[in-house]
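We modelled the chain as a single entity of 143 amino acids. Its sequence is:
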Amino acid sequence: MMRLRSLLPSLVGCAALAFLPCIAGCGSPHDATVHGVVTLDGVPLTEGEVQFHSLGSSGTAYGPLREGGAYALGTGSDSGLDPGDYKVTVVATEPMPKDLPAGTTPPIAKLLSPERYGNLDMTPFQFTVAAGDNTIDLALTSK
């Protein structure tokens, strides 16, 4: 019994060390980042969202459209995504009014991007995302 008590601190320390790689890996950033600019007939789209849908098992990464049509992807609360093959959808809308009276239901935003870009089965965009930094500009056309 005395020998077990003297070994207990060592056993606990070894168990803790065995779990460190798991703890360090939890919530770690992804191996790739994607950013770019979205335009429709050469004009930047500033409201809406870009989604990269994994053709593997990585899930979906998304990013809002911002000033100048810029976007950057993330997954959940993490920035970036896993390398791999992705189909890309874009849904862009008119800006929503900012000064709505309290209790007013906001109007339905008008879709600016052609429907095919927001449909996973119709989108023409498919990309391979490599590890590291990726710039992928998305040039939509109305025709």
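As a brief sanity check on the tokenised model: The longest strand covers residues 32-40. Residues 1-28 have pLDDT under 50 and may be disordered.
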